[in-house]
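Hi,

Apologies if this is the wrong queue. I'm a grad student, and the batch job for small monomeric GTPase from Helobdella robusta produced an output file that my downstream script rejects. I'm not sure whether the problem is my script or the file. Here is the sequence I used:
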Amino acid sequence: MTDNYDFLFKFLVIGSAGTGKSCLLYQFIENKFKKDSTHTIGVEFGSKFVNIGGQKVKLQIWDTAGQERFRSVTRSYYRGAAGALLVYDISSRETYNALAKWLSDARTLASSNIVVVLVGNKKDLESEREVTFLEASRFAQDNDLLFLETSALTGENVEETFLKCARIILSKIETGELDPERMGSGIQYGSQRPRSLSTNNRINSSCNC
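Support response: The file is valid. Your script probably expects a header line. Output copied below for reference.
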């Protein structure tokens, strides 16, 4: 039987290897930490239903490999993505320095309108921090990104990160900036036609996040 939902959003989780992308996805979907996680080979997939402003949204999430040798494979999955989590490890300066390259790929290969949230993962490793919150905040501001720090280990801010991205996409549908009817938008109407969207304030206040 077909699942009932108002919208489907295609998401990407991108960033360098070892930043905890697969663990973030697993924590979001299963509400627990993924032990003995190995590097993703190619692409992994997950999905989850969320309620935002009275709309039932299915998030279709593609977790891409961070190793350079898989980039030719993973780039094909960028096409038609509505949102992306751009992940770095707060305890690894190297993963932070690579952010501009990943962001460029997302905006070039997916869409210039893709909604991107910058995610500083492994917040639980505060004693090993190499990237300050302020520094990452400035990068996010300069590149028009939302920014949160998360911990896939403890679950801190993990759900909030996915929901913030989805909430912005829904708001942009409401204002006409994003059109679900447009090919490659990364957005589809669900099996139940969407109820009329209300104001942004209602979306923000009603979101279960």
